[in-house]
């Protein structure tokens, strides 16, 4: 379903959080970090090899 430019702009404004305009409303920054750690642990277990990743990368979720 195609959305009009006006409708899309209204939707994007509705999703913005007034306290944190750079993230969607109800966005929890720690959730992607925890999911990545769980994925890395599973890959390491399944393949029996260490998996390197950036533990403290900033602004990667945006």
In short:
By secondary structure, the protein is mostly helical. 47% of the residues lie in helices and 0% in strands. The chain has helices spanning 5-15, 30-47.
Description:
The protein is an all-alpha fold and 62 residues long. The protein is 47% helix and 0% strand. The protein has helices at 5-15, 30-47. The protein is elongated. The mean pLDDT is 82.
Supply the key terms:
elongated; 62 residues; 47% helix; 2 helices
Main sheet? none
User: Strand pairing plus helix content: what structural class?
Assistant: mainly alpha
Segments where pLDDT lies below 50 for 5+ residues? none
Number of strands: 0
SSE order in H/E notation? HH
Describe how the helices and strands are arranged.
Blueprint: H1 5-15, H2 30-47
